[in-house]
Specification:
It is a single chain. By secondary structure, the chain is of the alpha/beta class. The protein folds into 3 domains: 234 residues, no CATH class; 31 residues, no CATH class; 122 residues, no CATH class. The chain has 20 helices and 5 strands. The protein has a 5-stranded mixed sheet with strand order 2-1-3-5-4. Helix 1 runs parallel beside helix 12, helix 5 packs across helix 10 and helix 15 crosses helix 17. The longest helix is centred in the N-terminal third of the chain and has 22 residues. 39% of the residues are buried.
Length: 402
Amino acid sequence: MAALAALVAPNFLVMGTFMSMDAFDQLFWVSAAFVLILILKQDRPRLWLLFGLIAGLGVLTKITMLYFGFAVLVALLLTSSRKHLLTPWPWLGGAIAVLFLLPYVLWQIAYGWPTLEFWTDYGAKVDSASPIEFLVEQVLTMQPLTLPLWLAGLYYYLFSRDGRTLRPLGLIYVLLFALFAIQNAKFYFLAPAYPMLFAAGALSLERLVRRRSWNWLKPAYAAVLLVGGIALAPMVVPILPVETLASITGAGGGAGIKQERREEGQLPQHFADRFGWKNMAATVAGVYDSLPAEDRSGACVFTANYGEAGAIDFFGPEYGLPEAISGHNSYYIWGPGDCAGEVVISVGVPRGELETVFDEVEKEAMIRCEYCMPDENDLPVYVCRDPRASLKDLWSQVKHYD
């Protein structure tokens, strides 16, 4: 039952449909929670070493594993399980995790703590939600039909006599919910905390069935979850023709749940962000190929964000395009490379900004796509010449982390 609940949850389904760190982040959170259950239930303190190894791999995947680790520490302190902190094993496990984190910290120091700067501006990008709205997002994106299961699991951990040994797991969820709600984090950050609730909820359901002799309840609830999962799956998994999906979702796709403050078009963002990239590269390639040979040899492609730069880098070799440069996130850290800036093909950067740097700015094409995000449609492609300074001297001005 717990596995079925995880299978039908949109938050897990969608992360498995594209290459992203989040699917692996979920894997490491759930794996760490499983090891924590073994530690608490079977009193196996040496397993803290395995917990530290999993947490270390999780930190390498996504820094939000630190939230999970913090919640585990606080939950232990608030319960009788604090006795584990009097032994060396959790601290040795923590040391293992820190070893994995160390190269990341050294990299942060070397580049001026870019992640801190990123998180400073991150809140302005995320669609705002009150704690109540955040809760509604959790219910909807974890599949509303699983709500009784994970609420039963939360009750089991926090209030039942049998769940006393595993009380920290309930507190971990509560702490993470509060932290993410207060920080206006994206709704899917909390998703990896639900399988441990599903497991305890399924245990509670099993006991209810046995006590009441309601043998019909298990297959009935499983059938309801399965049917509900099948009904919602097309909203997060790309199985329908795009025209059909667009007619269903419309401008309010994703049940009105938005990840960011960007305007959405015919498709919700988790689908729309997959469209338009190859056409973008092809359009830029057309501009690049139209340049005189002497300009083309030294021309570079400068984009407004990492998505556009990633599209040029992924599809560009097919068209003979040079690697993209950008001031967005890690692309800024990688710098302008060998680009002198004498001829720059710009994508997504407003003309006014370009004219502060280049004496000559000419629009050569428009990038259009039907189902992409609106802010990636009708993008002008400019060819810029005669920079007022070298690109390396100007590079610090293009930095933006968000």
